[in-house]
Amino acid sequence: MNAFLARHRTVTVDFPLVSTASGPLDPFYNINTPEELAEARRFAEDMQ
Fold first, then answer.
1. How much is the pLDDT for 47?
2. Rounded to whole angstroms, how far apart are CA atoms 22 and 1?
3. From residue 9, how far is each of 2, 4, 6, 22, 38 by CA, in Å?
4. Which pLDDT value is given to residue 14?
5. 0.70 cut: is pTM over it?
6. Residue 42 belongs to what H/E stretch?
7. 25 with 43: CB under 8 angstroms?
8. Which helix (H) or strand (E) holds 43?
9. What is the DSSP track for 15-38?
10. What does the alpha-carbon distance between residue 15 and residue 24 come to, in Å, rounded to a whole number?
11. What CA–CA distance (Å, rounded) separates 30 from 18?
12. 10-residue block means of pLDDT along the chain (48 residues)?
């Protein structure tokens, strides 16, 4: 990975957290478990 990054220009991009009734949500929230899926569904409901 470091060799790739050394050969290519990179920039850091900050994405602000999204406010929801369940609390702040990372716009790149990753779902890997049934518990995380349940939490994602709560966030989705809050955003409707």
1. 83
2. 36
3. 12, 10, 8, 37, 38
4. 93
5. no
6. helix 34-46
7. yes
8. helix 34-46
9. -PPEEETTEEE-TT----SHHHHH
10. 12
11. 14
12. 93 92 91 96 88
Tell me the two tokens of residue 31.
């779902």
Task: Give the length of the chain.
Answer: 48
Reading the block at residue 43, the tokens are 């966030």
d(CA 21, CA 24): 8
Q: Give one word for 14, left, alpha or beta, with left for phi > 0 and alpha for psi -120 to 50.
A: beta
pLDDT for 46 equals 86
Please state whether 7 falls in left (phi above 0), alpha (psi between -120 and 50) or beta: alpha
- Residue 48's pLDDT is 82
